[in-house]
Amino acid sequence: MKSKLNQIITLFFISAVLILAAGINSAEAQSRHLTAQNIGLGGGGTAYQDLYHANFINPANLMINHSNRPKVSFGLAGGIYTNAGGNLVNITTYNDYLTNGRVIEGTVADQMLDQWFGTQSTDMRSANIDVGIVPVGFAYRSDSWSLSGASRVRVLGSSGYSRGFADLVFRGLDSDYFNEARAVNMNQEFLVYNEISVGYATTVLQRDRMFGFAENVRLHVGAAPKLVMGVNYTRFNLNSTLRIQEATSETNAQINHDFRYTIETAGELSDQLEEYNTLRESGAEPEFGDFIEPTGSDFTGIKGTSLGLDLGLTLEMDIDNLSIFNFGFFNGDKKVRVGLSLTDLGSVAIDDRNRSFSAGENFIWNGIHYDQKMVDNEFGGDDGKYFESVLKDSVGNDIYGNLVSTEHSSYSKGLPTMLNFGTHLLLGKFSLMVDAGTGFVERGTNSRRAYVALGSEYRLINRIPLRVGVKTGGHTSTTYHAGTGLEFRNFEFSVGVASSAVSEKHGAGIGAAWSGLVFHF
């Protein structure tokens, strides 16, 4: 019976926070805009991504490639991408320890979690996601200026856990390990918003010759202001320490959980949590999970509006006069482009029924009073159901469910701002691209850890782009990229993918993008 009780208590302490987070998540449906082109080339694009996608990467690029297509471009389902990963997604460690039947305890658990999370209980590891959909986009090009418009739906999410939390998951309530206080922390954040972006670019400087080798030198500048419409926001943050005192001949085992958690949310989910809390405060015993039910407005309703901005400049020059490149597949137009952009300036506003719910206590638990009569009469002699009921009622609702509700007029969450620099060397059918950048706001897959992306493209029969790339830095380990498609003067379609080969140090990353159907006329 003692073993069964320990299993139930362990599962309860893990589930007490996971149920909250899972309930919240179920109510939701180097973070830069990805396209089928740039994901195949390492995820850059600062000096080469054109059309309406340039609004989100470098608006100045609306002025490039004018001779390649007619004046108007239109995209239907004009781009879908997903990018996920992070240092929590450690496939190497998972395969080393969890796929070969090893027993995860003692020294083996130490080795696995040291490799996965680090040696301190406060060390955090996270998994992140960025999903974007461009339902529609257009671009119009004239000789001296370009205009574009695009809508984008975006979902940014992150889920992080401390080493101490992982110890609890894999060791359970091990009094030998938790005989000193360990950090059991968790952070989860999900942000959903829509954007309507309008981009404008023009050429502000033009020289016939510069630098001794460059001809037809042009400096393009662009800006893309956007209306940002907040759809949903939820954040769950748990900070706690857990300590377990083993039972002796004179004292019972003691669990000390000093915790503070906060839920920030809005809209229907906020109302559902408020209803739960109101019933609890009235003396009822509501079930937390019964009140968390996703609704359509969680994914479609607009809960606030704000403004954002993307800015960029691109220096473009012809190098056809350099005879060193006049051979083989280098025959054709030869250009050098250098781009600089500052993207996702601004914030997302959420101002619809905003509330935060918090609870905190230095909880000391000395065990369960075992009532054999109640076990027999109310639980049919089932010890497990009795323990579960006592934990749920006396601990779950009274301790962890003892929420304090606070109303807020508005949430303002920063967009994943990035500074990007890129170059593009075009030599006929062959291209070489290099990008570098860093994030300022860590949200979704955005990271303050700088990244470098290298890409190369060869245009087979000038209609089939063959793309490869590599990216290092950012929120994951090194990722390898590839893409292809069909590109005609009046129609194009392309796809791209990315994946990590190793994941031990900075975690795995995966990504994919589809161009949608893009027409030119």
Kindly describe this structure:
- By secondary structure, the chain is an alpha+beta fold.
- It has one domain (2-520): Porin (Beta Barrel), CATH 2.40.160.
- It contains 10 helices and 22 strands.
- The protein has a 22-stranded antiparallel β-sheet that branches.
- Strand 8 (214-245) and strand 9 (254-265) form a beta hairpin.
- The protein starts with a helix and ends with a strand.
- The model is unreliable at 4-29 (pLDDT under 50).
What is the beta-strand fraction?
Answer: over 45%
Residue share in helix: 10-25%
| Top-tier CATH class | Mainly Beta
Number of strand elements? 22
The biggest beta sheet, please? 22 strands, antiparallel
Shape: elongated
User: Structural class per helix/strand content?
Assistant: alpha+beta
Write the CATH fold name: Porin
